[in-house]
Model the fold of this input.
Amino acid sequence: MGLPRAPALACGAGEEDMTNDAPADEIRFLTADGRILASPSSVKDCPVIEYALPHSLGSSGEFTNLDWSNAPFCRGWALVDTGADHNYIDTALAEKLGVVPTQTVQVSGATSTTAGKIIDAPLFLIGSRTICDNEFITADLRDNGRMYDVVIGRTILYQRTLLMCPTSDRYLISRAPL
Done:
């Protein structure tokens, strides 16, 4: 069963054009009470995109020759964080997926420094049907009251074009930079 492709893109007058044949991920907004909206209803709503992560294909945690049509995967909403230097995954989700960390690092946040483990995992962006091979750092996202398991930071966002235009009510991440 194939995943749906995002609708054709269009921007309002004066905005940079994103072509109609460029698949994109539509940004949605996660509210404090857990609803997913097409447009923000408050400045506190978090921008999120839909993703899928595969379960490990072996005890080594390797994802080589991954067949997405048959692999078990976890699907959810990832926070789009333009201020995050790295990508993050909830520690419990990484363990559930069976991903083996490659090393431990110290991660500095806005209020603290904690130890995190680096994992390599392919993140499938559902709207654009693209796979991002990236490193993720484990963090206790859910334990800190967050309602998402993955944070997409600048290492993924730099490979794409982010469009957030409230005047035309369009919020997108393109498959590639313009």
Q: What stands out?
A: Residues 57 and 64 are 8 Å apart (CA to CA). The longest helix spans residues 91-97. Residues 44-55+69-174 form a domain with the Cathepsin D, subunit A; domain 1 fold (CATH 2.40.70.10). The radius of gyration is 16 Å.
